[in-house]
Write a structure and sequence with these properties.
Elements (H helix, E strand, L loop, with lengths): L2 E4 L7 E7 L7 E7 L1 E4 L2 E8 L2 E9 L7 E3 H7 L3 E3 L1 E5 L5 E3 L3 E3 L1 E4 L7 E4 L2 E3 L5 E2 L26 E2 L2 E3 L4 H4 E9 L3 E6 L2 E12 L2 E4 L3 E5 L3 H9 L6 E2 L2 H14 L1 E2 L5 E2 L16 H16 L2 H16 L18 E5 L8 E5 L20 E2 L3
Parallel strand pairs: 6-17, 7-14
Antiparallel strand pairs: 1-21, 2-3, 4-20, 5-6, 5-12, 7-17, 8-11, 9-10, 9-22, 12-13, 15-16, 18-19, 19-20, 23-28, 24-25, 26-27
Protein name: Peptidase aspartic putative domain-containing protein
Organism: Drosophila kikkawai
């Protein structure tokens, strides 16, 4: 992408190098080096999306194969996009950026509202920075003719949000041209107005802006991307020999389907005929009271939590039992809140690993079954 570099101020020289690309994309790379102040062509444009027009400052750059848009403007407009894989190379063919998004928009002209050009720019975090690289002295522009300029403040350093490349350049250029403006500038008529470029007389500087863009796009179909995503190696599985077959038999024997279409399977206890869970009510009650004290300090959160509990009752996930029922086992639970979650902001977490009066956790009573290594 456009690159800003500093070179020592030496004798004035100009060098333009054109390097055609022969690899993945038919692209020309241009390098301009000049120790003299140079003005690049900028214009005020309108980016149109869903009937809304957004004003932006654009660099008109014939050395770029494609058109680009800054991530700042892309996020501001909330443009639709497609995922792509591409590389943008600059001087010396070094990779300067790897865009992952390509959007679609219309570019309009503030001075010719009836004209709109459809384009598919690539999204980059930064384009050319601020242009010109330094503010130009207005005294050097005192002989500027009365032209309708595409960028009335072209001499002031300001941010660039769109880079118009050679892909749509023929659609914006008009026939008018004007040479020797202020002695050294070239004027070109466009649909946005007149753009100016060229060296600034009597304005030597050691700050150099060189621009080039070489684009190599690897087109990838969505189904191909999804296929590669799911083509992963098999997860290693370690069998727990003493309980694997028991868990499998329990699953086959006890799995059934409820009236509402849900599948139900019993828990794989190690000794299903001799289940000793112990008394868990005092521990669960203590956790419940701590939870209530915490929620009483924030009534809106308590209402959300109570709503989740009521939902469990309505869906039949739990039911009330008598405190004298010795066969019941109580799981301590508490509230977990995630305000930033887009799906479930309130969750009820049941703690089956808390020690019981027997000194062990309830989960210890279950068969382990298959053990999966972490991915």
């Amino acid at each position: 992408m456009p690159d800003q570099q500093s070179h020592p101020s030496t004798a004035i020289q100009q060098h333009i190098q054109s390097t055609p690309s022969t690899s993945q994309a038919n692209v020309q790379t241009f390098l301009a080096v000049n120790t003299q102040g140079v003005l690049l062509s900028t214009a005020l444009i309108e980016v149109c999306h869903l009937g809304i027009k957004y004003s932006a400052r654009a660099l008109i750059h014939s050395g770029s194969e494609a058109t680009f848009i800054s991530e700042r403007l892309f996020n501001l407009i909330k443009l639709p996009y497609e995922s792509i894989q591409a590389q943008v190379s600059g001087v010396n063919l070094s990779v300067a950026a790897q865009p992952r998004k390509r959007c679609q928009l219309n570019i309009g002209s503030p001075v010719k509202p009836h004209i709109q050009i459809e384009t598919c720019p690539y999204v980059l975090p930064q384009l050319a920075g601020n242009l010109p690289s330094y503010a130009l002295p207005e005294a050097s522009l005192k002989d500027l003719p009365p032209l309708q300029l595409a960028d009335p403040n072209f001499f002031r350093s300001s941010q660039i949000d769109v880079l118009i490349g050679a892909d749509i350049l023929p659609s914006i250029l008009l026939s008018g041209s004007h040479s020797n403006i202020c002695g050294t500038l070239l004027g070109q008529e466009t649909i946005f107005g007149w753009i100016l470029c060229g060296p600034i007389a009597a304005s030597p500087t050691s700050r150099i802006c060189s621009f080039s863009a070489r684009l190599a796009v690897k087109e990838s179909k969505l189904d191909s991307i999804l296929t590669k995503f799911w083509e992963v190696e098999d997860v290693p599985v370690k069998l727990v020999k003493e309980s694997t077959s028991v868990c499998e038999e329990n699953f086959i024997r006890s799995t059934k389907r409820s009236e509402d279409g849900r599948y139900v399977v019993s828990l794989p206890f190690k000794e299903p005929d001799n289940i000793k869970l112990g008394h868990s009510r005092p521990i669960a009650l203590a956790q419940y009271l701590r939870n209530e004290i915490r929620l009483s300090k924030d009534l809106p959160l308590k209402e959300q939590y109570d709503s989740v509990i009521r939902e469990y009752l309505d869906l039949g996930h739990m039911h009330q039992v008598s405190p004298d029922d010795s066969s019941s086992f109580y799981l301590p639970h508490h509230a977990v809140f995630k305000p930033d979650s887009t799906t479930t902001k309130v969750r009820v977490v049941f703690n089956a690993s808390i020690p019981r009066q027997t000194g062990t956790a309830s989960m210890i009573s279950f068969m382990r079954g298959l053990y999966y290594s972490p991915i």
